[in-house]
Amino acid sequence: VQLQASGGGLVQAGGSLRLSCVASGGMFNTVDWYRQAPREQREWIARIFRDGSTEYRDFVKGRFTISRDSAKNAVYLQMNGLQSEDTGVYYCNTQPPSSWGQGTLVTVSS
Predict the structure, then answer these.
(1) Judging by beta carbons within 10 Å of its beta carbon (0-12, 13-18, 19+), is residue 33 exposed, middle or buried?
(2) Among 22, 27, 26, 15, which Cα is nearest to 87's?
(3) CB-based contacts of 69: which residues, under 8 Å, 6+ apart?
(4) Given the DSSP bridges, would you call strands 54-56 and 42-48 parallel, antiparallel or unpaired?
(5) What letter does residue 83 receive in the DSSP assignment?
(6) How many CB atoms lie within 10 A of CB 92?
(7) Mind listing the pLDDT tens digit for each residue in 47-101?
(8) Of the candidates 78, 94, 96, which has an alpha carbon nearest to the alpha carbon of residue 86?
(9) Quick one: which of 12, 37, 72, 109 is 20 to 30 A from 27 by CA?
(10) Which DSSP symbol is given to 68?
């Protein structure tokens, strides 16, 4: 299964974006969102399990919401209250991770 993220862009601080993650080559169970800020390591930020339960890193709790549409084989990341620190390339992947896609760039201007 390969997952591809999309939906990034340039947004002002305080704004919102919705990222999409679409699977090809099969169905997925648990999906993670990661991000990689400039000059930083890739870090995990959110997870959704097959049953729809979710987990988040503390610094995105209350601002980001992960959801899934099994009929479309897709997972979404709704990001509200974006801050400059949220700038980076966002990736989605299965758990455990398979190959990494290109990710989608989110740039938050202050």
Answers:
(1) buried
(2) 15
(3) 75, 76
(4) antiparallel
(5) -
(6) 30
(7) 999 999 999 999 999 999 999 998 888 999 999 999 999 999 999 999 988 888 8
(8) 78
(9) 37
(10) E
